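Handover notes (outgoing to incoming on-call)

Open items:
1. Pyruvate dehydrogenase E1 component alpha subunit: sequence verified, structure written out, both below. Nothing else pending on this one.
2. Nothing else urgent.
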Amino acid sequence: MPSEQWTHPEPGDGPAAIAAQPSPEQVIAGLRATSEGGAELTQLLTPEGQRVPSTQFDPYVADVDDETLRNLYRDMVLVRRADREANAMQRQGQLGIWVPLLGQEAAQVGSGRALQPRDMAFPSYREHGVAYTRGVDLRDLIGIFRCTDHSGWDYKAHGFHPYTIVIGNQVLNATGYAMGQKFEGKVGDDDGEATICYFGDGATSQGDVHEGFVWGAVYDAPLVFFCQNNQWAISEPTERQSRLPLYQRARGYGFPGIRVDGNDVLACLAVTRWALEQCRHGNGPVLIEAFTYRMDAHTTTDDPTRYRLSDELEEWKLKDPIERVRAHLVRGGGAEPEFFDQVQAEADEFAAQLREHTFTMPEPPPERIFSNVYAESSPLLEQQRAEYLSYLDGFATAGEH
Ligand SMILES: Cc1ncc(C[n+]2csc(CCOP(=O)(O)OP(=O)(O)O)c2C)c(N)n1
Ligand SMILES: [Mg+2]
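Pyruvate dehydrogenase E1 component alpha subunit structure tokens:
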């Protein structure tokens, strides 16, 4: 592939920088390769629901029978339904903002279901599907978007860290955590621990991510860098973030990189299990680029019609992550029509509960904002708390003067 030729030049007489100069054609080929799946995409289920055999990855999903596939389908439908409900609630003024995951269900459910309870996941802000697979009640998550809570779950119990809005910052936290797993001797065999860190294509332009790559690599940290390349960083397309496919960057840091079809839940499960196995055995880190598509706006404050054409979305609808599993199950006799009706009814009920909870969620007291900031409070924090509460008291008594 042309982009490979210039990214990994043979040692020559000239300085490496000169040897690595690409031709204009190679640059163009590299740009295309960032926004087209290409031959290097690992896929186990085609968009039409046909099973693609893979010598390398089939062993990692050998246990996936029809029942497991039905469960993965159910996970994705429930998560999508909850996502649509939350999006609607934002439009109705019940949430301050919502960050849709539409289109990324397979990347999140597939990778999330590959994790063991002992593993730790570090999300950014769109990983509602991963949260669900980690047993986080989505009702505990909704408070963040209603702006009443920081994050309402026990992250240690769930192995799921709080959301991070600062782009790429969680990669440093995850790297530190994975280095800790290594230092404490928690890697080395099948029972080893691992960490997975989620970030977007745009985040790969952020310094924090590169620092995480360097530190993770030199300490052999048991860390899966899971990049959901949804093609957009708000209005910035991936080809403006990188000259070459993102997974190829891993080679520069000295660890494996792999591009998986992020709309294929089976491939995401297999590739993430493989990567986690590498980590458990002390061969981490690994970079996974899940090649997917953000089918909705960046957030509810964004209008994607300003910067992308609708035919792009139409094209990706044909690669829908949920439809291909349905097609596979129907074609192979793995599910009856009633199953799909049942899952839809369950998803509607799931969404109704989320709505009910959102409407009846108690308003937290004002001092709530000072809780759980640090493990232990500090005199400064106490002072701020007291000042804030007395400031609010001033409003309560203002009318009396
Ligand atoms: C350090 C930092 N810079 C800028 C922003 C504003 N911002 C929020 S989301 C975003 C784009 C991120 O895109 P990507 O990493 O592809 O993730 P996606 O939203 O597509 O999941 C930016 C620039 C931020 N939150 N943090
Ligand atoms: Mg993105």
